[in-house]
Amino acid sequence: MGNKITINPITRISGFLEIQVEVEENQIINAKSSGMLFRGFEKILRGRPPLDAIYFTERICGICSTAHSMGSTLALEDLLGIRPNENDKMIRDFMHGCEFLQNHLRHFYQYTLPDFARGPEIQPLYNVTHNDYRLPEKFNRELAENYIESLQYSRLAHEMLAVLGGKAPHTHGIFVGGVTVNLDASKWIKVKSILASIKEFVGGRMIPDAYTIAEYYPDYFENGVGYKNLMTYGVFDTYLEKDLFYVAPQVFIHGELQEFDPEKITENIHRAWYEARQIEQRPTEATVEENVYKEKAYSWIKAPRYDGYPMEVGPLARMWLSGDYTNGISTMDRTIARVLEARKIIGIMEGFLERMQPKPAQQGQYKFSGEARGKGLIDTTRGALGHWVATENEGIQNYEIITPSSWNLSPEDSEGVKGVVEEALMGTTIEDLKNPVEIGRIVRSFDPCVSCATHVISEGYSPVQIRIV
Amino acid sequence: MNEIPSNCPMISSKTITARRMMDLAIEKIENTSIHKINLIWLEATGCAGNIISLLNAENPDIIYLLDQMVTLKYNNSLMAAEGAGAFQQFLDTLETEFILVVEGAVATKDDGLYTVIARYQGELVTAMEAVKMAGEKAKYVVTVGTCASYGGPSAARPNPSQSVSVPQFLNKEVIRVPGCPSHPDWAIGTIANLIAFGMPELDPQSRPIIFYGITIHDQCTRRSYFNNGIFATKLGEPECMFKLGCRGPVTRTDCPVRQWNGYVNWPIEDNTPCIGCAQERFPDGMSPFVRY
User: Fold this and answer.
1) A463 lies in some domain
2) Is B50 part of the contact surface with chain A (CB cutoff 8 Å)?
3) What's the pTM value of the predicted model, to 2 decimals?
4) What is the ipTM of this complex?
5) In which domain, by residue range, is A143 found?
6) pLDDT tens figures, A267-277
7) Where does Mg(2+) bind (chain A) (predicted)?
8) How far apart are CA B125 and CA B148, in angstroms?
9) Domains held by chain A: number
10) Interface subset of B 152-171, CB within 8 angstroms of A
11) pLDDT per residue as tens digits for the range A145-187
């Protein structure tokens, strides 16, 4: 019989995650990913004023809150039939870019780097729990120094966000209609100068540091592969200008590109701690109740599927689908794609800065009546994020969120199909069963955010019926 | 309008700013025999946004905090160790003198199983158990953020996880440092006070007066608009947002004078109302966040 290895907590992520694997002859033969936090935001949102969803859903996640202000704002704009003007949209997308940079910097230096290099010699950043550190002392020292140096730049990414959005995390400036900031030259030049300093750090340190790690851990191009099914909802994709465009919505299944169809998204609760009338539901009709004692369930995360397939989402999926990075799909490719994406996004943000004008924000008064629904699907730091909202009179009737980490960290579904991270762990060789460092490295390459992935559930209500008038 | 008496105790306590407090603490650490106290920064039922906010700190920044002020023994987001080895560090710290910081509320439903922070010797360890274990032994307990301090968004109705605040859960004095998230200066300033001067002066809700002594409204840059009855009608406008639902009049923080993220901005300066994120009744009692 195999050995069972459990890692809980998987530290250096946002939220609480347990990974259990069974190992036979040093190979992983079974893997389970369990989200261990539940708050029930969707239930909490019911009955609240629809506009509250923007600042409320930000509170799902401290590290990627701006993602949720984007998702909720897009869903409400869809519902209200509102479109921001081009200038405000560029400012808003710039703010979303700030969130990408903050996340990618922190994920690479604070979360990923200690897997491969000994961190700064400060408790508890310095790792002593295993011995698979391969970097020569000189490189290790440089990376540890850059760990500290990077803190300044992730902080500055949030400072840019605050210049335009009031504060971060949980920024205020992204709102229905666009933004709330009245851009002026002083704010513009401030964020422009900060972006220039971040660009220098990303290009001069972060990207070389990722390649340094890759050089000494070439075996990590071979593990953590997974299904190779990739998906993006698209981001920075509403612009015709080439330097502002990143990636359009699309899916990649069994090596074939397909058009993205949001109607093919379902959520399966077979192994999740929920009960419902149907085991598989669409996000517009999700009706579940939590049951932590459910037999054979092992996670608070539901299993989202696209046309029945578990889909990998995140920087590698985007960079692959945009054609910016096609080296491979693996643990190390995910990390490299993430740092290269930081540079790509800086380029797009520079394009916004060239075009945005110091004009007042175009805001209105937004009122809700009758029954309506909207959806906001957009790629954010960790991948494809969907918000689905239904309103009735002046309140939220139903709210459903499928986060990127739900896609990546999902449990097995009722067809016996494993989640993306679970599959990526399968077959992995564990060199030292007492120090199974491979597991944490593979899991972290997906940048898990369990605060996001397990926020969820909806009330046991039937879906809103939309009347076409 | 309230008149501000010249002998107002809040004003006098405000003359010692957080920065000054930190400087004094730093000086004291450098010049005296103060030893670095251990710190557990425990993430419970929440969004982990307060540790992210802490990473935004500057002068002192997180490295100064960890290098010069405290010895951080356990934090889920930052620590290099993982799994049982990580949780062992938590357990070992309980036998020492330490400060416990909690961010996130305490989920109590189904024996706390809605938030599991570790597995130890095969058993699940809930955030509820961890807060209890560490809370009972800590020299000081500090709640950073509104969820830990008052329940916050995690306990918003109908409160599916039956989350409660740390002071509700622990039968012990708790210093509240609310905010959603808490400003890094509020958290580090409170820790500075504890290590250099002991207990800070607290208000009746156990918040340090240096940060939470005065309402946003009293120090608001748009106060003259309010006094003259000039109000914004939608976001993006420069006037007082009282009629848009601004919660500045009931929210006690120093946001208007301190500002956020490199001290560059704050929500009202960004033409959005204060939503009362540091107050006891946030978010339920602060809804709607925006009204027209």
Assistant:
1) no
2) yes
3) 0.93
4) 0.95
5) 3-453
6) 999 999 999 98
7) 42, 401, 455
8) 18
9) 1
10) 152-154, 156-161, 163
11) 999 999 999 999 999 999 999 999 999 999 999 999 999 999 9
